[in-house]
Amino acid sequence: MMSVLPNTHDVLLRNAHLLKGRVALLGVSNAALLPECPGNGLAMTTHAGVWSQLQQNGQWQSVFGYSSDALIPECADTAVVFVPKAREELTMRLALAQSLLDLNGQLILIGEKREGIAGAIKQLRMLAPSAMKIDSARHCQVWHAQPGRASGRFNEEDWLSWHRIDVAGVTVDVAGLPGIFSDGRLDEGTRLMLDTLDRSRPKAPVLDFACGAGVIGAWLYRRWGVDVDGLDVQAQAVVCARKAYEHVGSGGTIRASDGLVEGSQRYSTIITNPPFHTGIKTDTSMTVDFLQQVARHLTPGGELRLVANNFLPYPRLIEAHVGPCRVLSKDNRFTVYSANRH
User: How confident is the model at residue 275, as a pLDDT?
Assistant: First the structure.
């Protein structure tokens, strides 16, 4: 069965004549684009699952995130920027694109109306005032610009920021990058989770699934001295979590992964504040897959602890795949659930 390409990828193929010379595709969300795409070059994604699939295409150099030896200044004649969800990440992605282009290189910006293409155009025109729209299809717009040469090599570290959180008297400094979940603040679901973890030390070994910037693992190390392993699908999250762990001295391992890793060690405690969006769409499929698999990664009697918005239908799945589901804490938006493996 053929993969259905996102609208933005379809529209790029409709304008494939624009892909001249060495091409850099920035923000690929479906690896099935590459076999259909003329030419070759590099294809960057921030999604670990897509990155794994991109590596299977030998005609393109696959890149995970914004820090790679492959992101060489002036290595591209054409840079295609797919508009990300966060405006701040688009600013960073445009800066990367400009650094990759040679002096006369062209930048192609593609985004959907519902993804904020109108705002993205304003950002593009700040970089290249003469940018022009060249196509509109599938609820998308395609814009062309020649931004000129960047002042220097793109460095992801220049976009890194730090903020401090304090829960139950435990203070942790957390790194942030554009596009990461809850950048610059502690989301209320994680705060509620940490309140429950403050009451008793979780049994090691511990895994934080969908760890984001590593807030839970860093805080647990400060609170209880527990090393927490972390998994996340997003490149920026992996970078930030590693920074946070290094800052507090945690020995936990952070890995990029699209879901639980088969054959990995079992854990006595698995903690998660899982996402339920893909882009701007509600999407609980990753958490459903996680709940169907998590028991295989828990030791007998091991605990799953999950925080989620109250409206999400997770208790039934927890009961079906892990064990009797208990509510540890609840407010008007979030609930912290706990279950021990059958």
Answer: 80
Spatial separation of the C-alpha atoms in residues 65 and 44, rounded to whole Å: 7
pLDDT of residue 283: 64
Longest Cα pair distance anywhere in the chain, in angstroms?
63
Domain extent at residue 309: 160-340
User: Residue 324 domain-assigned?
Assistant: yes
- pTM for the model: 0.94
| CA–CA dist 71, 73 (Å, integer) | 7
Q: How far apart are CA 263 and CA 271, in angstroms?
A: 19
pLDDT value for 204: 98
Mean pLDDT (the chain, rounded): 93
Same domain, 209 and 110: no
Paired tokens of 76: 């591209």
Note the pLDDT tens digit of each residue in 125-146: 999 999 999 999 999 999 999 9
Stretches where the chain sits below pLDDT 70 are: 1-3, 277-283
Domain boundary among 101, 132, 156: 156
- The residue whose two tokens read 């076999």 is 35
The 3-class SS string of the chain reads CCCCCCHHHHHHHHCHHHCCCCEEEECCCCCCHHHHCCCCEEEEECEHHHHHHHCCCCCEEEEECCCCCCCCCCCEEEEEEECCCCHHHHHHHHHHHHHHEEEEEEEEEEEEHHHCHHHHHHHHHHHCCCCEEEEEECCEEEEEECCCCCCCCCCHHHHCEEEEEEECCEEEEEEECCCCCCCCCCCHHHHHHHHHHCCCCCCCCEEEECCCCCHHHHHHHHHHCCCEEEEECEHHHHHHHHHHHHHHCCCCCEEECCCCCCCCCCEEEEEECCCCEECCEECCHHHHHHHHHHHHHEEEEEEEEEEEECCCCHHHHHHHHCCCCEEEEECCCEEEEEEECC
